[in-house]
Amino acid sequence: MTITLIAAAAENNALGKDNQLVWHLPDDFKRFKKLTSGHHIIMGRKTLESMNGPLPNRTNIVITRKEDYTYQGCTIVHSLEEALKACPQNEEVFVIGGGEIYKQALDIADKIELTRVHTTIDDADTFFPEIDKEKWHLTEEEYHPKDEKHKFDFTYKTWIKK
Q: What are the residue boundaries of the DHFR domain, all occurrences included (predicted)?
């Protein structure tokens, strides 16, 4: 199994505020959809609820501490370990958030698909963990300038564990 964290984070690692993303980047959404479609995706309950439900064409696995939690179209588990056991062992699995789930998964991840949004969000309340450059190697970078559809410049970065 290949475990890939996929996220869009500001220069200060901000992911969002009040359970919402703080930017709208259509090209990043397209890339996210292209990379994750047909795969198992793992997320926390708040991430699921912020998206107004499961993502189509993916197997949605949701981690929650709430024992009796259910959500139609999702597999509900109570730990990252349980989530990984619910995934095929010979495929790439994507961890899509939020901040707590990324933190738990960072040490066991094989790859990070990070969209670095070139801004700082001072009042964010959710953050992506710091990438330790001693443990991770940057293998690809693709820069996108801001335009009429994108308020911020951003760079796709692919990190592979050393």
A: 2-161
H/E run at residue 48 = helix 45-50
Q: Which of 86, 22, 114 has its CA nearest to residue 106?
A: 114
* Cα atoms in the 13 Å half-sphere on the side-chain side of 162: 8
Domain count along the chain: 1
Q: What are phi and psi of 11, to 5 degrees?
A: -55, -35
Q: How far apart are the C-alpha atoms of 58 and 74, rounded to whole Å?
A: 10
**pLDDT at position 23:** 95
Specify the pTM.
0.97
Which residue segment(s) compose the domain that 26 sits in? Answer: 2-161
* Strands laid side by side in the 20-21 sheet: 20-21, 14-17, 126-127
